[in-house]
Amino acid sequence: MLIGSLLILGGLFMVAAIIPSKLSVEESKNYPTYFDNLSEKRLLRTSFRTSYSELERIDVLFKNPNLESRDELKIRILKTDGTEVVQKDFSGFNLGDTSHARVDLPKGVVYGENLVVEVVMTKYVDGKLMVGTKNEVVNIIQYYDSNSVSAVMTRLVDIMSKVMSQPIVLLLPLAVSVLAVW
Fold first, then answer.
1. CA dist., res. 73 & res. 128, Å (int)
2. CA R_g for the chain
3. Contact partners, residue 74, CB within 8 Å, separation at least 6
4. Are 142 and 81 in contact (CB under 8 A)?
5. Which 3 state secondary structure label does DSSP give 130?
6. 79, 116 in Cβ contact below 8 A?
7. Cα dihedral sign, 141-63-128-92
8. pLDDT under 70 in the chain at which residues?
9. What is the b/e burial string over 12-46, where b = at least 16 CB atoms within 10 angstroms of the residue's CB?
C-alpha cells in the first residue's frame, strides 16, 4: 500500500512537471523601476546574455501616462556582431499607462548568446512616452519555452526537492490515505 501511494504521488509530480509553462527571467528584478522619457534619450540600449535555450519573446516595460502619447518607436533585437534578429514598430496607441511591449523572436536563439535590445524613437509627437529602467538599463523580461525533456526533468527535480524539504507535505497525505484504506 505504501509503495502504491508513493507511485501515485510520483505520478502526480510527473504530471505537474509535464504541464507546459513558460520560464521567465527578469534582469535586475530586485531593483526599483524608474521611467526615463524616451524623447530625451532617443535611444536606449541594453545588452544581456540568454539564460536558457529557446528564447521565445522579450517584453519591454513602458509607461504612457493617461494614454496620451502618440510617439512612435521601434524595438530591435540584435546580436553582438550587429546582425538584426528581429525588429518591431510600436506607437503610443499600442501602449497602456503601464504595459509591456511584446517582441516575439524567431527560433534559434541559444543558451549563453549575447543579445542587445535597442529602443529607438522614430517619430516625436508629444514626448510623453517613458521606458521602464532598472539599475540604469532597460527593464526587459525574457520568456523561454520550457517544453523540452531537460526542462521537464528540471521541473520534476525542483518539485521533488521542494517536497523533500517539507516532509509533512509528503507524509501527511500518505498517512491519511493509508489510514483511510486500512
1. 12
2. 22
3. 87, 88, 89, 90, 119, 120, 122
4. no
5. strand
6. yes
7. positive
8. 1-2, 5, 20-21, 148, 169
9. ebeeebeeeeebeeebeeeeeeebbebbeeeebeb
Q: What one-letter code names the amino acid at 83?
A: T
Amino acid at 130: M
Which among 144, 75, 158 has a CA at the least distance from the CA of 113?
144
C-alpha cell read off for 60: 519591454
Residue type at position 39: S
In whole angstroms, give the CA distance from residue 33 to residue 144: 23
Amino acid at 133: T
160: Cβ contacts below 8 Å, ≥ 6 apart = 13
| Model pLDDT, residue 1 | 65
- Give the DSSP H/E element, type plus range, for residue 154: helix 149-165
Q: Which residue has the cell 504595459?
A: 99
| Type of residue at 23 | L
What's the CA gap between 178 and 5, in Å, rounded?
A: 8
- For residue 121, the cross-strand partners are 73
Cα four-point dihedral sign 129, 32, 59, 115: positive
Contact 58, 77 (CB under 8 A): yes
Q: Are 137 and 118 in contact (CB under 8 A)?
A: no
pLDDT of residue 2: 65
